[in-house]
Amino acid sequence: MRRIRKKHFLFATYDDFDKAKDVVGALNALDDKEDIIDNIELYSPIEHPEVEDLLGEFHQPIQRFSFFGGITGTILGFIFAAGVGQAMFTVQPQGGKSVIVFPPDIVIAYEMTILLGVLSTVAAFLMYSGLPRRVKSYYDHEVGVDQIGIEVETNPANNEKIRAALEACGAVEVRELTQ
Amino acid sequence: MSDFKMKDVEWAKINEDVLASLETPRKAFWIVLGVCIALVLCGAAAEVYQYNNGLGVALMNNPHYWQTYISNFVFWIGMSHSGTLLSAILLLTKADWRKPIYRFAEAMTFFSIATAAIFPVIHIGRVWNMYWVLPYPNEHAIWPNFRSPLLWDAFAITTYATSSALFLYIGMIPDLAICRDKAKGWRKKLYTAMSLGWMGRATEWLAFQKTYVLMACFLVPLAVSVHSIVASDFAMSMMPGWHVTSFPPYFVAGALYSGCAAIITLFVLIRYLFKFEAYMTPEIMDKTARLTFAIAMAWNYLNLSEYASIWYSDNLFDREMLWDKLTGAYAGPVWLMLFCATVVPFAMAFKKIRVNMWAMFVISLLLQLGMWLERFQIVSPPLASNHEPWTQVAVWPGLIQMTITAASFGWFTMLFLIFCKVFPSVSMYEVKEMVYHRNKHGKKKLQDMDKIKDDMIKTEEGLS
């Protein structure tokens, strides 16, 4: 039977964005950061204004989903409306009118562009934000109020070193967690 | 005017105040909700009566079968515009004063659409055949007519309702997580399911902000297209008074106008009912009123240009129709509309009025009356001066139609109040962002001022 390795975290809360920024800087400055820290996660009640400076750029090409969703909507909308025009042609007298009529088909295609664009954007949001998911058992409710949380995934052997770095920047509380 | 600028308020206090609104509104909340439920029950009784006795009781046994229900449909679709459209535009232009009021404005959009969607169902009489409007294959191989603007309506409104609901929901997720953390009982279950496990991680925030802006980019052209299509219901016909080239922009401006008026009404209402005095400040009302005033002037320009183009076109039928509108059987509602929608907005030119909540409440009700009458005078008078003499009679809405109209207001307000009681109607995280950024800018300004002062002192010392 395969044994699942338990993950070990240190979770610190701060009452200021600047302190959170300082602590990420301090952790990044550790000589052996690559060896002792597996991951740093930041939790905040509003978007941290400098989050990408702190944690590096996040690859979330949501706009591509919007673009291709929109294009798909245009094509499907037009094909659908034109196809229905063709279907109507076989059963309803058209009185000499065109089978495929551009002005109304463009309206339908336009609406479908937006509908599929929005739906793809929402799908991309769920994909890149990792939602829906279970709330972590150690999630601190204060993060939803006014505190900033820093979660460091590490080996228990490095606890002291990382705890010292977290506390040096004015942590309100530092907790050890295993999941 | 309060000098509260939302700079000094603590984040925890924002959570407390907004969460308290979900628990303990003023007693007046229950009175207003009770009145709304009573109106809805009256409307349901009228609908049952109409259903049992036929559409003749709604005066649809005469040539004016497009009258009150369609006026209501256009009115409610119009009202739905400002919420999402203004929220999206103000988001893209980074106007931070939108933050305390955009949530309820977006909710207003959704419930307006839900109200508007009732009227085509009531109007067709055979409610069980409503699904015929949907384009689906069937054994008769008959599809809906894609050349009809009424079918475009079905597409546009479905898209608008879906997108607006998603825009409202996605924007609420961080706040639903806050509610989840504090709630108990059924609320806890509801918020847990709806918040999708949001924890405020950096990846969540980044994806969220990108998505929100992208959705706003889709919603602006969508909102414009929806009311343009509603305008096409009339403009695509050959009726004098309906076949007007400027109808799409005129309808969009009218929609924004009535929507802004509704935002003001609901602003005052929920500010009082849910004790949001600290967040919905006179400063924000001032800005909303200015925006409404500007949109009112744009609508008036389009309205006058419609009259002017009819006058100068020298088309006999159009001119007759316009003259009949202003002097005929429907002159009363038309002049009342012009008073409410053209004269009343000038009251908003005065700051003392703009920051007075109850004055703005009365003004907003008058503006909405004007905009309802505007829809009525678009639909009814042209029917009475049609090409065909047998339609040339004045018909007024009957008791059943007016009861269902009143019920629609009750229905909308009831849904809206229930929403505000269950979900946070002020965005907590956005107000926090506003507080944070205003504080940051304030601090930076002070630092700059100190630096300038120091430089001046040093220069003076150097000179002496």
For the structure shown, list the relevant keywords:
heterodimer, A: 179 residues, alpha+beta, Alpha-Beta Plaits, 2 domains, 4-stranded antiparallel sheet, 6 helices, 50% helix, rod-shaped, B: 464 residues, mainly alpha, 74% helix, 0% strand, disordered N terminus
Topology:
The complex is a heterodimer of chains A (179) and B (464).
Chain A: E1 8-14, H1 17-29, H2 33-36, E2 37-43, H3 51-55, H4 62-91, H5 102-129, E3 148-154, H6 159-168, E4 173-178
Antiparallel strand pairs in A: 1-3, 1-4, 2-3
Helix pairs in contact in A: 4-5
Chain B: H1 11-23, H2 27-53, H3 68-92, H4 102-116, H5 118-124, H6 149-182, H7 185-195, H8 202-235, H9 247-273, H10 282-313, H11 316-327, H12 331-343, H13 351-354, H14 357-384, H15 399-422, H16 428-463
Helix pairs in contact in B: 1-16, 2-15, 3-4, 3-5, 3-8, 3-9, 3-14, 4-6, 4-15, 6-7, 6-8, 8-9, 9-10, 9-14, 11-12, 12-14
Question: Biggest β-sheet of chain A, characterized?
Answer: 4 strands, antiparallel
Compute the gyration radius of chain A: what is it?
26 Å
SS-derived structural category of chain B: mainly alpha
Number of domains of chain B: 2
Q: How would you describe the shape of chain B? A: globular
Low-pLDDT windows of residues of chain A: none
SS summary, helix count of chain B: 16
Shape of chain A: rod-shaped
N-to-C order of helices and strands of chain A = EHHEHHHEHE
Number of helices of chain A: 6
Which strand order does the major sheet of chain A show? 2-3-1-4
CATH superfamily of the largest domain in chain A: ACT-like. Chain A, domain 2
Q: Residue ranges of chain B: pLDDT <50 for 5 or more in a row? A: 1-6
Mean pLDDT of chain A: 82
Portion in strands of chain B: under 5%
- Count of domains of chain A: 2
